[in-house]
Amino acid sequence: MTGLQPPALTGVDTHAHIFRQDLSMAPDRRYSPHYDAQVEQFLKHLDRNGLSHGVLIQPSFLGTDNRFMLDALRRYPQRLRAVAVVEVDISETQLDELAAAGVVGIRLNLIGKTLADYCGPAWSALFERLARRGWQVEIQRGIDDVALIIPAIVACGVDVVIDHFGLPTGGIDSEKPSHKAFLALLGDPRVWLKLSAPYRSQSDLARARQILAQVREASGGLSRFLWGSDWPNTQFEDQTDYDRQVTFITALLPDADERAQVLTKNAAKLFGFDVSR
User: pLDDT tens across 86-105, in order?
Assistant: First the structure.
């Protein structure tokens, strides 16, 4: 499945990271890897689990140096897309280069960071540029703050993807104003949610099922949900692995048609994989 012939679309893992421990790291990183996670390892996980495509997410500890990820995209263009980390003033030429390699969006990993003014002219200009390209903006931030960030971004006309169930540690309390605002966001047709990394919000299967019921009702169905393995599960390597994350989503979405909706149809639409292949 790694040749030039495009593989048939059987499922998409929309959230995985690749890196080497000897790469230049961002000075403000919260984590430094002590091992390598290569694209060939990721593709082997896909193959073993019957998945055809994947989306690479630039890890925050590599900052805006996307070169390692771009190299993987160029070697496996039929199977991979990616979400990059960029500076707010990135040039059109640089965006063109990312797009040519297979990048379809940018990521804002806001864990532990002071929130910027995403309503301001610099960020709004970037989001509007991304919207014209049909790109997405991916957000990682705890559930209590998500509704403070996303409305201004969506107003620029760009799709927004919320990472990891919205990181609802302790579950979703629909009576809490910030949680109520989060659920309200999911009704927007430009807002997507990744059913990924439940361990990052201390959610076991029972809690994840409860959260899924809440977000499903708020979203009006499953049409904007995605799945990602979060491989190689940085900082949680001793608690989970790729196969266990596949097992988890299978248990969370036991209906095969619903699982296909999330793993295939939704992901193909958002990330530009050709569903006719």
Answer: 999 999 999 999 999 999 99
Per CATH, domain 12-271 is 3.40.640.10 = no
Mean pLDDT of 221-239: 97
pLDDT 10s digits, 172-214:
999 999 999 999 999 999 999 999 999 999 999 999 999 999 9
Quick check: pTM over 0.90? Answer: yes
Q: Domain coordinates of the chain in residue numbers?
A: 12-271
Bridge partners, residue 225, by sequence? 193
Give the phi and the psi of residue 177 in degrees, each rounded to 5.
-55, -45
